[in-house]
Write a structure and sequence with these properties.
The protein is α/β, with parallel strands linked by helices. Helix content is 54%, strand content 12%. It has a 5-stranded parallel β-sheet with strand order 2-1-3-4-5, sandwiched between helices. Helix 3 links the parallel strand 1 and strand 2. The protein is globular, with a radius of gyration of 18 Å.
Length: 199
């Protein structure tokens, strides 16, 4: 039996909210982060990125889009490192030390002054993310925080917030991916001379 339910009202409502939130994004914040990332590229600084759950997938996608996508066409290469991609390392830290340390432990002894840390947490309150950010601040790294909802503790801790002002984890995570592709697309054009909108 095929169910023929009418979800069109719900579909329209979701799209409408996402469109409205996109219009509310702070373009000054995005511009600041683009400049920070370009400076990191120019100076050869490491960029560490991480998150939990859907934010982990976003972090992995960022690494792919910058290390391969943009870097394929540039002489200097982005140096993204996604801290949630090595399952064996994460499980060893979680099992032997504690899940709350899975990101901070990986930064210890590696993070240099001026390196970039991109912390992704929809709520802004994930303990393991906040512990890593606190360590990054102590190490004089530059912290970019990607958040949703009220921004939580992460929004106040980070140097450069990329805040999605909506009380929905799904739309928050959608727009975090939009920000990845937005910045990638801009760098394609400004650093690589490629404008995919014309293809």
């Amino acid at each position: 039996m095929i169910f023929m339910k009418d979800y069109r009202k719900d579909i329209a409502s979701y799209i409408s909210l996402e469109t409205a939130v996109l219009q509310e994004l702070d373009t000054d914040q995005i511009n600041d982060v683009l400049n920070i990332l370009e400076q990191a590229l120019d100076e050869g600084r490491a960029i560490y990125i991480f998150g939990n759950g859907g934010s982990a997938a976003t972090a992995s996608h960022f690494q792919n889009d910058f290390n391969k996508g943009v870097s394929e066409h540039t002489e200097k290469k982005f140096r993204f490192q996604c801290l949630n991609d090595n399952v064996a390392t994460i499980l060893a830290i979680a099992n032997d030390i504690g899940y709350e340390e899975i990101f901070r432990f990986q930064l210890q002894g590696k993070l240099n002054k001026g390196d970039i840390v991109i912390a992704i947490s929809g709520s802004g309150n994930s303990d393991n993310v906040l512990r890593a950010v606190e360590y990054a601040k102590e190490s004089q790294a530059v912290v970019i925080g990607m958040t949703g909802f009220s921004g939580g503790k992460l929004k106040d801790l980070c140097d450069y917030p990329l805040h999605v002002p909506v009380r929905s984890m799904q739309i928050t995570e959608d727009i975090h991916m939009v920000l990845d592709h937005l910045m990638m697309s801009i760098f394609y054009k400004s650093l690589c001379g490629i404008d995919h909108r014309k293809e």
